[in-house]
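for the recovery benchmark. tokens below, seq after
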């Protein structure tokens, strides 16, 4: 960035006051130019109103689908007469150290690891 000396700054200021460029800046004059410049502040893409509404609807739709999937799973569980613990314990990724969901003490105490000593 250029650093102006006080003399240069005074000379430039006097020249600009002499030229008066603000008197000739009129903006768009034709109807086409005015309509085009009216779009300068228009947002588009993901940050536009339409984009934000789309992502909001998409988020709500995903939540709805998750709720439907959960309801279908619960109905299947009721038909099989299995508890969620029994089904999750059978899953290979969930077998080791899976807390019993019927015993809520591991969650209430704030320990997410079952049978772990409480933090000081």
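predicted aa per position
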């Amino acid at each position: 960035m250029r650093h102006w000396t006080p003399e240069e700054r005074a000379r430039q200021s006097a020249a600009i006051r002499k030229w008066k460029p603000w008197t000739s800046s009129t903006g768009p004059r034709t109807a086409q130019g005015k309509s085009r410049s009216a779009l300068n502040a228009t947002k588009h893409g993901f940050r536009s109103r339409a984009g934000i509404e789309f992502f909001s609807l998409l988020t709500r739709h995903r939540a709805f689908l998750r709720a439907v999937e959960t309801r279908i799973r619960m109905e299947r569980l009721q038909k099989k007469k299995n508890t969620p613990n029994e089904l999750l314990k059978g899953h290979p990724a969930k077998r080791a150290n899976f807390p019993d969901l019927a015993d809520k003490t591991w969650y209430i105490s704030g320990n997410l690891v079952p049978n772990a000593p409480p933090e000081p």
